[in-house]
Specification:
This protein has 187 residues and is an alpha/beta fold. It contains four helices and six strands, in the order ββααβββαβα. The strands form two sheets. A four-stranded mixed beta sheet has the order 3-2-4-5, covered by helices on one side. It has a two-stranded parallel ribbon with strand order 1-6. Keywords: Mitochondrion, Ribonucleoprotein, Ribosomal protein.
């Protein structure tokens, strides 16, 4: 474990299971836009409020939007989620389009997992020294540059014919010989 994880609060992933299978539940519960009416660093926030805030509120009726004007302070966005997480972002000197993108990011995520040291339900005293398994672990390196399909790398030329394939070929041969006998008797 690295030293930076020692000071983070431990917790498990609290993601809602299968969110979006039946219906999607937006995890953003409340968003607070704090800004100054006269400060120059709040210009992008004021433009966002004037142009896009009403449309954002109409499109996302489940999200409560608060505006909090503050004198001589920089613009801030605070997002609160259903799982109790709060994300605080400074929007100082950001443009209208950047603030629009950040608000959309806050709307689509499920909270701040960067401040939580993720724990697993399983634990072992002897972790693997071989590294994680991937689908390419035991593959030939020549496959990286090969033009596929290539008969040299095909699995069918190395394996003997399966019983199903043998039965299918026998049936087709019998069917063809049966048709030729039917043609002879018809003549």
């Amino acid at each position: 474990m690295s030293a930076k994880n020692m000071f983070l609060k431990p917790g498990f992933v609290r993601a809602p299971l299968q969110n979006g299978v039946g219906r999607y539940v937006c995890q953003l519960q409340r968003i607070v836009l704090k800004f100054c009416k006269s400060n120059g660093s709040s210009r992008g926030m004021r433009d966002f409020i004037e142009q896009d805030l009403v449309d954002f509120a109409k499109v996302n009726p489940g999200v409560v939007v608060y505006l909090k004007p503050r004198r001589h302070r920089g613009p801030v966005v605070v997002a609160e989620y259903l799982n109790g997480d709060r994300v605080w972002m400074s929007m100082s000197n950001k443009t209208h389009s950047e603030i629009t993108k950040w608000v959309d990011v806050l709307r689509t995520q499920q909270g701040d997992n960067a401040t939580t040291r993720l724990r697993k339900y399983q634990y072992t005293d002897y972790p693997s020294v071989q590294g994680p398994w991937t689908p390419f672990t035991h593959k030939l390196p020549e496959l990286n540059t090969a033009e596929l399909p290539d008969p040299a790398f095909g699995a069918n030329n190395r394996l003997p014919m399966s019983a199903t394939e043998q039965l299918r070929l026998m049936f087709e041969a019998q069917k063809l010989s049966g048709k030729s006998e039917d043609l002879k008797t018809a003549e």
